[in-house]
Amino acid sequence: MSWLPFVFSQYDKYWSRGNLQSPMKRSPGEYFERQIYATFFNDPPSKMLLGQWGTKNFMWSNDYPHPNSTWPKSREVIERDLGHLPKDAKRRLLSQNVQELYELPRIAELQAA
Questions:
Q1: Cα(86)–Cα(94) distance, integer angstroms
Q2: Which of 5, 28, 29, 73 has a Cα at 20 to 30 A from 53?
């Protein structure tokens, strides 16, 4: 995910100058914030961005069972990359965003059923 802020800042600049010759009414970055989700894992530079950008659009992943997965050290990687964030931001990245995107019930709702 760490490459996305640069790309969107560039496309937003081109769009604002009219260089994209696009019928879009909003900047590419606004469309991203409104309707695009992405996953990330094992991306240490993301630590510098999260909390300032993209918290509502990203979902942490471990890519199990692929060899480049963070498993079996996923908890350590989460702490390394997300440990500095407030609890609500971590909750968003680890569960809430995916629950909202796929309209999944929350654990409390499942326990009440």
A1: 12
A2: 73
Q: Encode pLDDT of 26-40 as tens digits.
A: 999 999 999 999 998
What is the tens place of the pLDDT at every residue in 6-25? 999 999 999 999 888 889 99
Q: Kindly list the domain boundaries of the chain, sorted by start residue.
A: 1-34, 37-112
Cis peptide before 45 (omega within 30 of 0): no
pTM of the model: 0.81
The answer to whether 40 and 61 are in contact (CB under 8 A) is yes
CA dist 75 and 82 (Å) reads: 10
SS in 3 state form for 37-73? CEEECCCCCHHHHCCCCCCCCEEECCCCCCCCCCCCC
C-alpha–C-alpha distance, residues 18 and 14, integer Å: 6
Helix (H) or strand (E) holding 60: strand 58-60
Mean pLDDT, range 101-112, rounded to an integer:
76
Specify burial of residue 45 (Cβ count, 10 A radius: 0-12, 13-18, 19+). exposed
